[in-house]
Design a protein that fits this description.
This protein has 315 residues and is mainly alpha-helical. Helix content is 74%, strand content 4%. It contains 13 helices and 5 strands.
Length: 315
C-alpha cells in the first residue's frame, strides 16, 4: 500500500531467521522437541492436579493455573517461530503481529500476577498456618485467579490499540524472533515518544510484583529459620524452593528483557535474551514443578497405574 511517496507496511519480516540460511533445521528440531515437552509437561501437570483430590489445595490450584497459562503463552510465539524456520515466507501480517503481542504480553502479565498470588499463598501458609484454611478458601482462589486474568488481558489492551493506529513505512524488518513492542515501534514512521510513559507503567507493575514476592519470601525464610526441628525446616524450604526458582527465572528474564531502560544490545544478545525469556523459562517450569515435586510425581504414578489396571480389566 502506498501513501504519497511512502510505501505503507502491511506485513513484517523476521530478519533473524534470514541469517540462519541452511542451518534452519538444526534449530527447528530442538525447538520442536522443546515445544512438545513444554505442552506435554504442563498439560500433564494440569490434568493430574485436576484429577487427584489430594492435590486440591490452593498451592496446587495456582500451579495448575500457571501450567495452563504456560501452554498458551508459548503457543503465542513458538509455532510461528517453527513455521518461519522451515518456510520460505518469514513474514507476519500487521494484524497477526498485533495479535501475537497482545496474547504474549497478556498471558505473561497474568503469569506474573499468579506468581505473586503463589508467593502470598506460601506466606500465609507458613507465617499464619492456623488461619490459612479459613483465609485461602477455594472461592477466594477462583476470584483472585479471575481478577489476575482480567487485569492481565485489559492492562495491555490500550497499548496494542494505540500501536494499531500507527503508520508503518520504510523498512519492515523486525530485529527479533517474535513481535514485541520495541522492535515494532522502531519501524513506525511517526512520533512514538508516548511509549516512554507506557514503559514506565509496565516497569512499575513489574517492580511492584517483584517487591511483593521478594518481601513475602524474605518473611517466609525468616519464619523457617526459627523452626526448631531440622526436618521441619527442610520440609518448609523444599515447599518454597520450587516457587522461588520459578520466581527468579521469570522475573530475572523479564528484568533483563524489559527493564533495560536506555541500554541497547546487539541483535545476537537480543535474540539470546528472547530465547531465555520465551523458550528456556517455560521449558524449565514443568521440570521444577513436576519432575522435582514428590506429590505430583506420586499423582502421575497413581494415574499411570490406574490406566494400566483399566487396560488389563478390558482385556
Amino acid at each position: 500500500m502506498t501513501s504519497g511517496n511512502q510505501t505503507m507496511v502491511t506485513e513484517f519480516l523476521f530478519s533473524v531467521f534470514l541469517h540462519l540460511h541452511g542451518s534452519s533445521l538444526l534449530f527447528f528440531i530442538p525447538l520442536l522437541l522443546i515445544y512438545g515437552f513444554i505442552i506435554t509437561g504442563n498439560l500433564v501437570t494440569f490434568i493430574v492436579i485436576q484429577l487427584d483430590i489430594a492435590l486440591h489445595t490452593p498451592m496446587y490450584f495456582f500451579i495448575s493455573v500457571l501450567s495452563f497459562l504456560e501452554i498458551w503463552y508459548t503457543t503465542a510465539t513458538i509455532p510461528k517461530m517453527l513455521y518461519s524456520l522451515v518456510s520460505e515466507q518469514k513474514t507476519i501480517s500487521l494484524a497477526g503481529c498485533l495479535m501475537q503481542m497482545y496474547f504474549f504480553h497478556s498471558l505473561g502479565i497474568t503469569e506474573g500476577f499468579v506468581l505473586t498470588l503463589m508467593a502470598i499463598d506460601r506466606y500465609i501458609a507458613i507465617c499464619n498456618p492456623l488461619r490459612y484454611p479459613t483465609i485461602m478458601t477455594f472461592n477466594l482462589c477462583i476470584q483472585l485467579t479471575a481478577g489476575s486474568c482480567l487485569c492481565g488481558f485489559l492492562f495491555v489492551l490500550p497499548e496494542i490499540a494505540w500501536i494499531g493506529t500507527l503508520p508503518f513505512c520504510g523498512s519492515n524488518e523486525i530485529q527479533q524472533i517474535f513481535c514485541d513492542f520495541t522492535p515494532v515501534l522502531s519501524l513506525a514512521c511517526t512520533d512514538t515518544s508516548l511509549v516512554v510513559i507506557v514503559d514506565a507503567i509496565h516497569a512499575v507493575e513489574i517492580l511492584a510484583s517483584f517487591l511483593v514476592i521478594a518481601l513475602s519470601y524474605i518473611k517466609i525464610i525468616m519464619v523457617i529459620l526459627r523452626i526448631p526441628s531440622a526436618e521441619g525446616r527442610h520440609k518448609a524450604f523444599s515447599t518454597c524452593a520450587a516457587h522461588l526458582a520459578v520466581f527468579l527465572l521469570f522475573f530475572g528474564s523479564v528484568a533483563v528483557m524489559y527493564l533495560r531502560f536506555s541500554a541497547t544490545y546487539s541483535m545476537f544478545w537480543d535474540t539470546v535474551i528472547a530465547v531465555a525469556f520465551v523458550i528456556l523459562a517455560p521449558f524449565l517450569n514443568p521440570i521444577i514443578y513436576s519432575l522435582r515435586n514428590k506429590d505430583i510425581k506420586t499423582a502421575i504414578e497413581k494415574l499411570l497405574c490406574y490406566q494400566k489396571g483399566a487396560v488389563r480389566v478390558e482385556r
